[in-house]
Amino acid sequence: MTSPRRTFAIISHPDAGKTTLTEKLLYFGGAIHLAGEVKARGANRRARSDWMKIEQQRGISVTSSVMTFESGGVTFNLLDTPGHEDFSEDTYRTLTAVDSAIMVIDAARGIEAQTRKLFEVCRLRSVPIITFVNKVDREGRPTFELLDEIADMLALDVCPMTWPVGMGGTFEGILNLDTNRIARPEGDSRTFQGKVEDAPTLPAEIAEEIELAQAGYAAFDAEAYRNGDLTPVYFGSALKDFGPADLIAALSDYAPPPRPQPAEPAPVAPEEKEVTGFVFKVQANMDPQHRDRIAFMRLCSGTFKRGMKLTPTGHGKPIAVHSPILFFAQNREVADEAYPGDIIGIPNHGTLRVGDTLSEKADVRFTGLPNFAPEILRRVALKDPTKTKQLRKALDDMAEEGVTQVFYPEIGSNWIIGVVGQLQLDVLLSRLDAEYKVAAGLEPAPFDTARWVSAEDPAELKNFTDLNRAAMAKDRDGNPVFLAKSAWEVGYVQDRYPRVKFAATRER
C-alpha cells in the first residue's frame, strides 16, 4: 500500500527563520541527526538546503531545494523556497508543485511585504496554509496583535493551536491548547529537550488570554483549512526546537494529500493510472564537477517506475528515465518507484525545460507555469571575447532554470538579460564566474521592460515588428518580444496597435 504523501512549501519574508525551520523539520522528522545553524560548517553544512556559494556567503536562500523524509508512516516532500522577493518567479513556480504551505512569521515583525505577496500566490492556487509564528523566545509583539494582523491582512479565520506562555525574557514554554500540556525550556540554552508536562495552574494573565482566544477565534475546521479559508496558528522557536514537532504532526493530520492538478483538456486527478507530471524547476551544476542538469518533476498521477518512458510536451519524443533521483539537499538516491505528490529529479542534457509536461501518452498538458515580464534589463559585456560560446551556453542554462531571461535583439549583437529583482543579477555574475569560468559585466540597457507580442492576423504582427525593429528581440524560444523604454511607452504603443496583444506573462 502506498504511504500517504504530504508535499508542502515553506514561505516567509527573509530572516523570519525559514532555513532554520527547514533544518529542524528534517531533524525532528528523522532525516538528519545533526541540525546546524544557518552559517554552520563541516558536517552541519550537509544538513542545509542552502548549497550555492552565494547562499553560503550571504546566509540567504536564492534557489528552491527539495528534501524528502519519512515520519510516522507519512512521506513528506519539503520544498524550501527563496524568501527574497527578487526570486519571486522561482518561488511562484515552486508553489505550483505543492499541496499546502507553512507560512513563517517573525513574532517581532508580524506580516511583512514578501510574506503577503507569497500568501496571495497561495490564495490564487487555493493552497491551504499553516501559520508558524517564530522566535517567541525573543521579545515580540503581543499574541493577540499578531493573530489579529493575520486575520485582517490576509482575510483569513485564525485558529490558535498552541499558545506561548510568556515571550522573550519571560518565555516559559508552549501550551498545546488541545491536550492542555506544556513544552518547557531546559538547560542553559533554554531549548526544548523533550520535557512535556500537564499544564499546572497558569499565571492569571495567561489563563485569561487563553480563555479569550478560545472564545474569540474560530474553532479548528479541517475542511475550512483545506479550502484556504482558515489557518491554524502555531507558536514556537525553530532555533530552540519549539514547534517543529507540532508542525510535522499538523501536516500529517490535517494537510491535504496530493490534489488534482490544472491541465488541458481536463484536470488530472492523482488516482488516474497514466503516469503524468510537470517540470517546475531545472537546476544546473548542483554538482559542478559533473556539469549535471536536473529537471525537478512533480508527479501528478500514476505509479512511476524507474526506466519507464515518458513523453515531454517540448519535443514529443519519448525519453527513458533510467536514473530518477530523490533529494535530500545535495544528497541523492535513485528512486525505483514514485507516487503522486513525489518530486523526482530527472538528469538530462537540456531536453527538459520548466513547464514541460511528461506523460505516458502525451495527451495532456499541465497549465499555470508562466514566464513573467522582467522588471530590470541589462546588456551583458563579456570581458574575454573568446568566451562567447561559453557565455551563450551559460545564459541558456540559466534561462532554462528561470534565474534570468535572455533576449536576442534584432539589431545589434549585445544580448540583453531580464530579471525580476536586482539580487538575481548578483547570482548571475557569481554563477558565471564560479560554474562556467566566464568573466562578464553588466551595462545599462536602453530598455526598461519587455512584453511578448502576438496577433491573430500574422500580417498585423509583421507590420508591427517591421516598423519597430530597433525595439524588437527574440526570446530563447524564438518568440517576438517588444522592448520598451518605460511603462508609459508600453501603454502608448498598445494604444497605437490595438490589434497586437502585449503580454506581461507567457505560458510555458
From TrEMBL:
Keywords: Cytoplasm, GTP-binding, Nucleotide-binding, Protein biosynthesis. Pfam families: EF-G_D2 (PF22042), GTP_EFTU (PF00009), RF3_C (PF16658). GO terms for biological process: regulation of translational termination. One of its GO terms (cellular component) is cytosol. GO terms for molecular function: GTP binding; GTPase activity; guanosine tetraphosphate binding; translation release factor activity, codon nonspecific; translation release factor activity, codon specific. Residues 3-259 form the Tr-type G domain. GTP binds at residues 12-19, 80-84, 134-137. The keyword Ligase does not apply. PROSITE patterns: G_TR_1, G_TR_2. It is found in: Cytoplasm. Belongs to the TRAFAC class translation factor GTPase superfamily. Classic translation factor GTPase family. PrfC subfamily. Increases the formation of ribosomal termination complexes and stimulates activities of RF-1 and RF-2. It binds guanine nucleotides and has strong preference for UGA stop codons. It may interact directly with the ribosome. The stimulation of RF-1 and RF-2 is significantly reduced by GTP and GDP, but not by GMP. NCBIfam families: prfC (TIGR00503), PRK00741.1 (NF001964), small_GTP (TIGR00231). PANTHER family: PEPTIDE CHAIN RELEASE FACTOR RF3. This is Peptide chain release factor 3. It comes from Sphingomonas endophytica. The lineage of its organism: Bacteria, Pseudomonadati, Pseudomonadota, Alphaproteobacteria, Sphingomonadales. The gene is prfC.
